[in-house]
Design a protein that fits this description.
The complex is a heterodimer of chains A (358) and B (508). Chain A contains 15 helices and 2 strands. Chain A is mostly helical and 358 residues long. Chain A has a single domain (2-349), classed as Orthogonal Bundle (ABC transporter involved in vitamin B12 uptake, BtuC). In chain A, α2 crosses α13 (294-318). Chain A is globular and about 75 Å long. Chain B starts with 6 loop residues before the first strand and ends in a 10-residue tail after the last helix. The radius of gyration of chain B is 24 Å and the shape is globular. Chain B is 31% helix and 24% strand. Classes of the chains: A mainly alpha (358), B alpha/beta (508).
Chain lengths: 358, 508
């Protein structure tokens, strides 16, 4: 029978091989599900994972979806390294979008050189400010940030619904739950004229690079890592836990707000009830799949972005519900957590009779 | 003696990944014998004892119990055979009574009948006063140990294993324990006594098995040897003579002053510090003795700045009020600290030695510039610690957890000593450290004091306190006694203070 033997040290090989194993297992399991539904499994999986990349504009769409996931995944990897479990990035994303979107609506005639930088600031401030409520609750009342950040995410969703169906609703919008379109100046520069490639797409990998340097080379990154791995040692060294919790929440919330700002100004051009297909929650999977390393978050963000495109492709080409995106993401997270056991354990085959110890 | 031995182990082998913990170990315990198992940390004593008590199984070797071959399957099986064990760390529920705790440890429901009376009988007949109705929370460590012993004795063991029993006791309590153990042995219960306290072993034990690096290196009668001889068998290198006694330092300005430091305990099992007053001059080493849990941890945290003492004037570092300052500011003023717990407090075990050097050294060692870690300086600083303190490791990039306890402790002490502190406070400097590393640490402490630093040692090891200190104070129930020069301090006087008894009552 199989048995799991603890390893004496974490396996560096498996810490990177585990996401690949998880991906392979996810493809197998989802294939099995399609087969069970009476669909050709191989064709369905390839339609889901490969066809979006080959389609016209597929790479552009991938970049547009990956940018917010990478930004948020980077922020989360910094926070999670410090044992600050912000799972409310969805809410911070929405607040960043609301702050930037409202500003854009209020200043329709501002020149782009002033407006766009202002929108960036508003997005970061909106997301970070919302996240700092969580930091305050934790440091002041010792309230668990997992619960408070998640609950605030739901509040943010209802706040968005209230705004776009109420005070910010486009009076000429035939009653749809959305705001007026922002002025052109609000959408910022394009990488290629006429495309959807907004500035956030360049910024996302840059953010990952900066975060990678911060985590590995700076005193701040060191403090975050020490707090996560040995809180008493952080105290011993005089690193203030409260200050680091505030910092980690501000960074992860600020990047989520930035992602929200780029999504509404760069991609959608208005606020509506569906500004996010769950990017904030998917970013949690991105963070873990990227091994909580800003460098790993980039490929992980691209992969999870692909699952959104795959859902659309499966819907269009095969007539499947695009709920399969959520199913695929769920199976992936599940398989990843399972595969991660191999980082600290060795799988060995043992016969019932005790074999000689080596 | 031609008696059948009570227990005979032969050729015991136990291999762990990367470490041969027991290499063909033989051990023979006669009936009525108090048998010492001596060895440094990591010699394989614990592994051997766990095998005897059925916690782990050997890879090879034979166990013969009262003349019959057995394979001890589990601790329950060991207890049925008549083997009892008192662990170094007790497993008692603080909120329950003595009788409840003992009842929980019994395998069989029918053993619980009349338990209370049997506890009273056993404790009376062996001189182990224990009140079955007291709550464990209210009991001293010595009393708690008695519960564990009584719990074993209720099963009528023929062999009682005691793992470093005196490490938590006052000298007086230890004497009482020895009397009990002698009596037990006389009445037919053999005792396997694990310790590294050589004088104790010489006083108490009739036979000794000495282990080194997983092998038995000697089986002898401890009384025939001096403590020094035993020590040299136990450790691989010949012991160098203890650090030269320094002449008492000339009167120098106090570098660390505590002024009626009060600190309310933050957790219900903590100890509140009460009006702690102390002045330590440059060049001086002050030892703070005391039994674990009498406020040492709280005092250490208050000194390092992990808990703030409130009023600035309660702590002076080189005459600068520091009671309100956190650890970083105190380090800037010249305070350096080595906490008792290495893993996760003094060091982050999953990080490299270089990162651990950075942890407390980045301020005084100037290892960061504009928030960026200066990797070269950090690497150099780490390499210098490793070299000067002979830390056995593969290099600055090795993780802290890859080091043995003694090597990591040398590294952590070295990390602070290299920062040229004005005041060094070090808690349990050689706790769980082998003799060679302990000697190196002691020499570093003495050298630091000789260079003019004020040093405070908080330790439960009285030998260490007496060896290093110029003055000795005792912490008991959160109060610190008046320090006395080492020449005037006797073991008895310190022992009484540790037990919370003042030798000369201030006023009656």
């Amino acid at each position: 029978m199989f048995s799991l033997q603890p390893r004496s040290a974490a396996s560096p090989l498996w810490s990177w091989a585990s996401p690949l194993l998880a991906l392979a297992l996810t493809a197998l399991i989802s294939g099995a599900i399609f087969a069970f539904m009476g669909r050709p499994p191989v064709l369905t999986v390839t339609t889901f994972l490969i066809s979006p990349l080959l389609a016209t504009g597929g790479l552009e769409a991938l970049a547009v979806k990956a940018a917010p996931l990478i930004m948020m995944g980077v922020g989360l990897s910094l926070a999670y390294r410090a044992n600050v479990w912000n799972i409310g990035t969805e809410g911070q994303f929405i607040l960043g979008a609301i702050a930037a979107g409202t500003t854009a609506l209020l200043l329709p005639d501002a020149p782009g050189t002033v407006l766009f930088p202002l929108l960036i600031v508003m997005g970061v401030v909106g997301g970070a400010g919302y996240a700092l409520i969580v930091a305050w609750l934790r440091t002041r009342f010792n309230a668990n940030e997992i619960l408070t950040s998640l609950m605030l995410a739901y509040i943010a969703q209802y706040l968005l619904v209230f705004l776009v169906t109420g005070p910010l609703r486009d009076p000429d919008g035939f009653g749809f739950p959305q705001t007026a379109l922002f002025a052109d100046a609000a959408s910022g520069p394009r990488l290629i004229e006429g495309s959807n490639l907004h500035l956030g797409i360049v910024l996302a990998p840059l953010v990952a690079l900066v975060a990678w340097i911060v985590l590995g080379r700076t005193t701040l990154g060191f403090q975050l890592r020490v707090l996560g791995q040995a809180p008493r040692a952080a105290k011993f060294a005089g690193f203030s836990e409260d200050r680091l919790v505030w910092t980690a929440m501000a960074i992860s919330g600020g990047l989520a707000g930035l992602a929200g700002m780029f999504e509404v100004t760069g991609t959608q051009g208005q606020l509506s009830t569906n500004i996010s297909p769950g990017y904030g929650f998917t970013a949690i999977i991105v963070g873990f799949l990227g091994r909580l390393s800003p460098a790993g978050v980039v490929p992980a963000g691209l992969l999870l972005a692909l699952t959104y495109l795959g859902g659309d492709a499966a819907q269009i080409n095969l007539g499947l519900s695009n709920a399969i995106t959520g199913i695929f993401q769920g199976i992936l997270l599940f398989c990843l957590l399972g595969s991660d056991v191999l980082i600290l354990h060795k799988l060995t085959w043992r016969r019932r009779a005790k074999v000689a110890a080596t | 003696m031609t008696q059948t031995p009570l227990l005979r182990l032969s050729g015991i082998v136990k291999q762990y990944p990367g470490c041969l913990a027991n290499d063909h170990v033989d051990l023979t315990i006669a009936p009525n014998q108090i048998h010492a198992l001596l060895g440094e940390n990591g010699a394989g004593k614990s592994t051997l004892v766990k095998i005897i008590y059925g916690v782990i199984r050997p890879d090879a070797g034979e166990t013969v119990w009262q003349g019959r071959r057995v394979v001890i399957q589990s601790p329950a099986h060991a207890r049925r055979l008549g083997i009892g064990m008192v662990f170094q760390h007790f497993s008692l529920f603080e909120a329950l009574t003595v009788a409840d705790n003992i009842a929980l440890g019994l395998n069989d429901a029918k053993d619980r009948v009349g338990l209370r009376q049997r506890i009273i009988d056993v404790s009376a007949s062996y001189g182990l006063p224990v009140d079955p109705d007291r709550t464990v929370h209210d009991l001293s460590v010595g009393e708690r140990q008695r519960i564990e012993i009584v719990r074993c004795l209720l099963q009528n063991p023929k062999l009682l294993i005691m793992d470093e029993p005196t490490s938590v006791l006052t000298p007086q309590e230890a004497e009482t324990l020895f009397a009990t153990l002698r009596r037990l042995a006389a009445e037919g219960c053999s005792i396997l006594y694990i310790s590294h306290k050589l004088d104790e072993v010489r006083a108490l034990c009739e036979a000794a098995t000495i282990m080194r690096l997983g092998r038995v290196v000697a089986q002898l009668t401890p009384r025939d040897k001096t403590a020094r001889e035993l020590a040299s068998i136990m450790i691989s290198a010949e012991l160098k003579p203890a650090a030269e006694r320094r002449p008492p330092p000339a009167a120098a300005a106090p570098r660390l002053v505590l002024n009626r430091l009060n600190l309310r305990a933050t957790n219900p099992f903590g100890t509140s510090l009460q009006a702690i007053t102390l002045s330590v001059a440059g060049g001086e080493i002050v030892g703070i003795a005391g039994i674990a849990g009498n406020g040492q941890g709280e005092l250490m945290d208050a000194l390092s700045g992990e808990t703030l003492a409130g009023k600035p004037e309660t702590i002076l570092l080189d005459a600068v009020p520091a009671g309100h300052l956190g650890p970083k500011e105190r380090r800037r003023l010249g305070g350096c600290f080595v906490p008792e717990e290495r893993n996760g407090h003094g060091a982050v075990t999953t990080m490299s030695l270089a990162e651990n050097a950075f942890l407390s050294g980045h301020l005084r060692g100037a290892l960061a510039r504009l928030g960026l870690i200066d990797r070269r300086r950090t690497q150099d600083y780490t390499a210098r610690i490793i070299q000067r303190f002979d830390v056995r490791t593969t290099g600055p990039q090795a993780t802290a957890k890859s080091l043995s306890g003694g090597n990591l402790q040398k590294f952590l002490v070295g990390r602070e000593v290299m920062l040229d502190p004005a005041v060094l406070v070090i808690s349990q400097p050689t706790w769980g450290v082998d003799a060679g590393a302990a000697l190196a640490i002691h020499e570093a402490i003495v050298a630091l004091a000789a260079a003019g630093a004020a040093v405070v040692i908080i330790s439960q090891d009285l030998d260490e306190i007496f060896l290093l200190s110029d003055r000795i104070a005792v912490i008991a129930a959160g109060r610190l006694s008046e320090p006395v020069p080492v020449a005037d301090a006797t073991l008895e006087r310190i022992g009484l203070l540790m037990g919370g008894v003042s030798p000369e009552p201030a006023h009656v």
